[in-house]
Give the backbone structure.
Amino acid sequence: MFGNLGAGEIILILLVVLILFGAKKIPELAKGLGKGMSEFKKGLKEVENEIKDADKKEDTKTDNKS
């Protein structure tokens, strides 16, 4: 998930985030990040469904011409 980052690097990054944003803001940031990821996944599924529907319609048109 974190590529080639070791435990030391991850701890250092977390400390920097803690210093920059403060302990009170981190839960708010995490909540916002979670909502953003959720919305992105919903949008991705919608696009996949639209592509599948368009593909099915195209297959139906092709089958009717035969």
Notes: Residues 24-65 form one domain. The radius of gyration is 22 Å. Helices lie at 7-21, 26-65.
